[in-house]
Input
Amino acid sequence: MTSLSRELVFLILQFLDEEKFKESVHKLEQESGFFFNMKYFEEKALAGEWDEIERYLSGFTKVDDNRYSMKIFFEIRKQKYLEALDRHDRAKAVDILVKDLKVFSTFNEELYKEITQLLTLENFRENEQLSKYGDTKSARSIMLIELKKLIEANPLFREKLIFPTLKASRLRTLINQSLNWQHQLCKNPRSNPDIKTLFIDHTCSPPNGSRTPQSATVPLSAVPKPAPYMALGTHGTFPPAVAANANALAGWMANAAASSSVQSAAVAASPITVPQNQGLNHMSKNKNIYGDYQNSDPDQLMKRLRPIAHPVDESVWSSDDLPKTVACTVSQGANVTSMDFHPSHHTLLLVGSGNGEIVLWEIGLRERLVSKPFKIWDAAARSIAFQATLVKDSSISINKVAWSPDGSLIGIAFTKHLIHLYSYHAPNDLRNLLEIDAHVGGVNDIAFSHPNKQICIVTCGDDKLIKVWDLNGRKLFAFEGHEAPVYSVCPHHKDNIQFIFSTALDGKIKAWLYDNMGSRVDYDAPGRWCTTMLTIILMWNQQDGECFLVEWNESEGSIKRTYSGFRKKSNGVLQFDITQNHFLAVGEDNQIKFWDVDNVNMITSTDADGGLPNLPRLRFNKEGTLLAVSTADNGFKILANAEGLRTLRPLDNRSFEALKAQVDRLDGSSPARPSPLLLAEILEPSQCRVVSTTDSGSKVTRLLYTNSATGLLALGSNGVQRLWKWTRNEQNRVARHGHIAPEHWQPSSGLLMTNDVSDNDSYVMSACGGKVSLFNMMTFKVIRYDDVHAPPPASTFLAFHPQDNNIIAVKTKLKGHQKRITGLAFSNHLNILVSSGADAQLCIWSTDTWEKRKSISIQMTAGKSPGGDTRVQFHSDQVRLLVVHETQLAVYDASKAERLRQWLPQDSLPAPISSASYSCNSQLVYASFCNGDIGVFDADSLRPRCRIAPSAYLSPAVANSSQSVYPLVVATNPQEHNQLAVGLTDGAVKVIEPSESEKNWGAPVPNDNGAAGGRTPAPTVTTSP
Output
């Protein structure tokens, strides 16, 4: 809606209020969402008219918009619930609980449970937190104070709480002015005109003879007030809210150079005197004074907008200029979904993956500089809708990665709601800068722009919106107008005029200025489906699979040329890129096809030595000398021309020793050996922070955190499970609990949970013998009890499927091991289940058919028999697999069933390994040893960073006792990567963090060439001969 139309709504609101149409006033306030009437809201809240309050609020916000909105609705529904309890209307209270309050359970399950328990009390004031609840009237007043604070703080209500200052009867005044103007244009104006309707323009009926026009003021009070009040669009003052046609582009661009506000267009309140015979000419010249952009000639603008065309002399270039030579092949470890080269460092490549991870590669050195697995930075600030989406399906992928024009920022668009913004500091430092819950559904594209010399982020999504954000996360603009999900955005500028092109899945192309005036252009791409735009080049995919690549004539809204060389049908969206307005590259048919932008015929194509997917992703560097292309085996290839190959020469010029070290790194067959100089020693309690629980006398055999990191669940060797919880408060709401002792939690019934455990915060799935039990964690009561085998073998391990918590894997219907199962791990990315057993075997099973794909024997050192428990855990990339045995730590590539790394107990950590686990960000591995030591390893290289001695976390009495006490199991905090918990042989549990001064466990492991702060690259790079 244009700003003038918005102002018209305010004029109508004033008119309705003056005419005492109270219900209509509030209905229009709610439907338009332009003005929130706090006085009306207060009246309804104090009167307890809850349904009307929520109806009115629905015009401005929804429950899941943000945390303020969620809190507003929660307070209202909580008060409604408490009043029902106070009236002892249990049926109504249950109805409110189920229909109104249930939505908040996904955000805070514990709070919902506490609210539910109020039903069991005769008087809810018996609850300590509600003991000061007074009568209904005072409670509503207190609630209203809180609601007003939340509404004023909610950004969705910004600029909606104050009604604009208007003169009385402003709408009547404007109509009066319009009628006066119309009267001045009458060919035969009367001194006392008879105005009977507003439905048509006023004209004075001609008398017997012609009369000289006279000035006349027609008071609106003389006009009979019609019952239905019609819109004023026919008078031309407020342009209708329809999409502009293809000839509209010039006007909106010309208007953009001046102020977007309509100045000098308002008609003065005094009578207008028009000289004789000039009235019609005056109107003709100014008929679009409120909306010139709709009908202006586009030719002048397009001369300004269109990039200057430089004719290309074919003698200057040849097909050798195309990057077609395969320079290297790199394994990303996950499906590559997006790539972008740094704008100035032409060998620095940013890669986004299907598992949500980003990796920064230095292609010249074939090094993985830094990787960032997907992680929600601030879960509490995310919307209810996003959290509910993750509950249904926790997988998340990357739609787009993008560098800012100066290369200092990185933007990431995810398939669910979020964008992440990082700041980049060379050579390998990425710092979290901003996390925004940007769109409902997927964020399909992200780009950077510079309106008003201020860098901004432009996003689009499945919710049909385009949004512009500043670097503080504040939403500057939200462009509405598309009727289908917006697929791509293309910020552009010409002659200091900044604008945005957007394309949607229905083929619509729109253009927007950085204002709130709506789209200025509305084109239809032929085929009307998925469209991608890069400056003047468009590609779209029709629903029947036919693809087109065209150069777009913006001035005419038509196709200038269509590039040939595509197959008839494609089963997905093609990717393309353009370099220096010279070459086009498109991924199709397992190959890369090239065009010159001024020639419709394909120049050449290449399959890049094979291994490309049907529709490969691709990206040029800025110079066009390198081309990154995704591969079918979760990696990418770098194609280069002659200049690009010279850019990559630094690898060839490295010293023999450096190359030998790299070859050693690529050879994962030999165990990694640590350098004693790199190993930090934690020997005293003062060097770390430790929290202890009381021992139970029964060995801790399993240990895990709850998903919210607010609880620890331990299983003893006697089959009894114990639960500890940290109390939530403002100081302790994050996952850092290393200095706060958890409380042992047990229901008043005294019931105990027994058997094995899983990691759902509300329920616990456990297994023992041939039976599997489901426990309620609030009551410890058994909800369900199923026989898995009759008669047993006993169930020895249990794991949840990562996509469906209703699927669990329990030993042993899948036959493949000779001895008992000791570990299970699912990979959502590879669709496999890996099992490990006491036979030192790994079995890989397809989760689609549950057939065994492969069996791997763990390589034992000489003299060791293949026995003992083996545990497995997937890295966050869902490809690398950590294998833990008492004799070794090993990392495997599960997609190839190959071992990448191995570490054997040695030097400062010589004892057998009892347990190990990845940190939550998969950057570290924590391992416990049978002599009480705890080792912290770099996850990529399996090199030790730190040793935590038993003297640092055990009391002197326990450490010096005759009984050997050591960790049997390690658990890692799901939100804080530097925190771990260990379960000991004496039944105690220890939570351990680095000291406040250190903050980290040892220093990062340098890479083999001695570069400080680097990370040893995984053996994933191969170089073409």
